[in-house]
Amino acid sequence: MVCLINAQRTQRGLPALTVNQALTTAAQQHSAAAVQLKWWGPNQDSHRNPQTGSTPESRIKAAGYCPNPRSWAFAEITYTGWGGSGTPNAAVNWWMNVSTWGHRQRILDPSMREIGAWAQPGAADRAGAGASQAGTYVVTFGRCQQ
């Protein structure tokens, strides 16, 4: 995921993002919860865990990203798919070319400096439960000035 996203950025003259462990932890925990609970789907907010109420900001802070900042920013993008749509390439293609919810802008945000990404086997949508080649992807972005 990181390589595919950094390729999108560098092809457009933007700097590659640096992997950050706290951002990766936030992405990992969210994707694992999503596959376990399977709440993503039409008209559902994939960014707010219905069981814990966690949000991108609360997850990223809880993972220890950018404690006591002078300035900071964050973003999160999500994707789940199955069959031929459960691959990392399918996720990045959807974020860059299909989605109308600002995923492309988050990937290409020149102010972001760090990234955390996680690919979790399985679908986060009940419609994909038990489907072959299912994958759930969460990518977090950050900028921290301390």
Automatic annotation (TrEMBL):
Residues 4-126 form the SCP domain. Pfam families: CAP. Residues 41-60 are annotated as: Disordered. It comes from the Bacteria. This is CAP domain-containing protein.
